[in-house]
């Protein structure tokens, strides 16, 4: 059972230490980004640089030095299976587009699965020096301050994050935005889905919806939102599904039904 996951406080502490160290490396690259060679992946909007790869290498090395039997899935280097029942799910830089374009909306995202359930979520935003940290049944914090969602906030009296990438059609994205606006809401997109999920946990956004994201984009944020008192749409983690994309939704209690309806769930 996930709540019996051993050694969780130590793993949560390690994740925060690694995120801070990785954040310093990434911030150094950010501050000299004019020297970076920007490469593309799926399309011209899907960018990557040596910063993403070096940060992921650092995170993998630190995790394996402490927990050699754990598995690790990262955006840049894929899945390395383990035997402990734990799998770390890492996005070394979420918000690479803001990163290479000189905007501060990017973060290090480190999640941990036990028996397929997110049990640790750490998101660190170096430009803002904001550390979001949560562990299953341990609560969630922002820079050490406990996060608790306000049940009176909904899609009409608060703002909702919407994300999009080239895995979904323009018409799909347009329909989501149209439905949200028609329901009396409004949308924000800052270019980092993981950071926007942390903002849901912090009560800055009432919810986040993106029709197709990967495990490394959402699992840390999911743990944070749940521990702050919110809800998330379960990401499939069995076998191959862990490395594929799926709809990502996380909300405060007052926005669950509206966002599920917009997502067609
Ligand atoms: C992307 C960001 C973006 C979201 C994309 C993700 P990356 O991650 O989270 O906000 O809309 O779907 O792929 O590539 O910056 O790590
Ligand atoms: Ca990417
Ligand atoms: Ca990402
Ligand atoms: Ca990334």
TrEMBL record:
Biological process terms in GO annotation: inositol metabolic process; signal transduction
Residues involved in Mg(2+) 2 binding: 93
Matching InterPro entries: Inositol_monoP_metal-BS (IPR020583), Inositol_monophosphatase-like (IPR000760)
Binding-site positions, Mg(2+) 1: 75, 91, 94, 217
SUPFAM superfamilies per record: Carbohydrate phosphatase
Reaction it catalyzes: a myo-inositol phosphate + H2O = myo-inositol + phosphate
Pfam families reported for this sequence: Inositol_P (PF00459)
Cofactor(s) needed: Mg(2+)
UniProt keyword Magnesium present: yes
Protein keywords: Hydrolase, Magnesium, Metal-binding, Plasmid
One GO MF term attached to the UniProt entry: inositol monophosphate 1-phosphatase activity
Keyword Hydrolase assigned: yes
Gene3D superfamilies linked: 3.40.190.80, Fructose-1,6-Bisphosphatase, subunit A, domain 1 (3.30.540.10)
E.C. no: 3.1.3.25
Family note: Belongs to the inositol monophosphatase superfamily.
Name this polypeptide is given: Inositol-1-monophosphatase
Organism field: Rhizobium grahamii
């Amino acid at each position: 059972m996930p709540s019996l996951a051993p050694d969780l406080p130590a793993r949560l502490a390690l994740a925060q230490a690694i995120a801070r160290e990785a954040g310093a490396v990434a911030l150094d690259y950010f501050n000299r980004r004019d020297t970076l060679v920007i490469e593309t992946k799926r399309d011209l909007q899907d960018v990557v640089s040596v910063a993403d790869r070096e940060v992921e290498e650092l995170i993998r090395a630190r995790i394996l030095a402490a927990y050699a039997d754990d598995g690790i899935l990262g955006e840049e280097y894929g899945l390395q299976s383990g035997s402990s029942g734990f799998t770390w799910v890492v996005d070394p830089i979420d918000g690479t587009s803001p990163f290479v374009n000189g905007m501060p909306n990017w973060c290090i995202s480190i999640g941990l699965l036990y028996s397929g359930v997110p049990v640790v979520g750490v998101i660190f935003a170096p430009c803002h020096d904001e550390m979001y940290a949560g562990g299953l049944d341990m609560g969630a914090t922002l820079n050490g301050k406990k996060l608790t969602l306000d049940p009176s906030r909904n899609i009409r009296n608060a703002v909702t994050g919407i994300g999009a990438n080239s895995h979904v059609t323009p018409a799909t994205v347009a329909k989501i935005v149209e439905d949200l606006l028609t329901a009396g809401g409004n949308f924000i997109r800052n270019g980092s889905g993981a950071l926007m999920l942390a903002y849901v946990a912090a009560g800055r956004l009432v919810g986040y919806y993106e029709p197709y994201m990967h495990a490394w984009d959402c699992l840390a944020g999911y743990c944070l939102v749940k521990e702050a008192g919110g809800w998330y749409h379960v990401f499939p983690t069995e076998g191959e599904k862990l490395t594929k994309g799926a709809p990502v939704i996380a909300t405060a209690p007052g926005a669950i039904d509206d966002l599920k309806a917009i997502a067609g769930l």
